[in-house]
């Protein structure tokens, strides 16, 4: 919960340092009309740092999101926009959340 909260707070109110990193890598979390992008689109934006070394990428994400929020950003990068879309679709599926929770309880 804390990591996710930190992630969204950093998007909503970026620090000066975060804004500089976002500008440097042309990362934007808002549409032209000022609305926040969907999570899958945010994952696509984050892919702009995927060509960096893992250490550099993690440093950039840490500057944008802080250490807690960077965990969420890294998870989005690993899942990718298609993975986020797939997860959203499965959660909309009737009973999917219950099935996912049951599967996770088994492991």
Structural class: mainly alpha
Q: What's the shape?
A: globular
Beta-strand percentage range: under 5%
What is the typical, i.e. mean, pLDDT? Answer: 87
Radius of gyration: 15 Å
Binned, the helix content reads over 70%
Task: Write the element-wise H/E pattern from the N-terminal end onward.
Answer: HHHHH
Biggest beta-sheet profile: none
Intertermini distance: 21 Å
Count all strands and give the number.
0
Poorly predicted runs are: none
Number of helices: 5
Q: What's a quick, concise take on this entry?
A:
With 107 residues, the chain is mostly helical. The chain has helices at residues 2-12, 16-24, 39-46, 54-92, 96-106. The longest helix has 39 residues, at 54-92.
Keywords:
single chain; mainly alpha; globular; 107 residues; 0% strand; 73% helix; 5 helices
Describe the 3D structure.
This protein is mainly α and 107 residues long. The protein is 73% helix and 0% strand. It is built from five helices and no strands. It has helices spanning 2-12, 16-24, 39-46, 54-92, 96-106. Helix 1 (2-12) packs across helix 4 (54-92) and helix 3 runs antiparallel to helix 4.
């Amino acid at each position: 919960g804390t990591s996710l909260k930190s992630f969204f707070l950093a998007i909503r109110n970026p620090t000066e340092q975060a804004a500089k990193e976002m500008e440097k890598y042309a990362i934007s979390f808002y549409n032209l009309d000022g609305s926040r992008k969907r999570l899958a689109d945010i994952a696509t934006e984050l892919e702009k740092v995927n060509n960096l070394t893992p250490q550099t990428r993690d440093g950039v994400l840490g500057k944008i999101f802080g250490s807690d929020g960077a965990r969420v950003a890294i998870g989005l990068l690993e899942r990718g926009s298609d993975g986020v879309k797939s997860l959203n679709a499965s959660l909309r599926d009737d009973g999917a959340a219950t099935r996912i929770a049951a599967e996770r309880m088994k492991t």
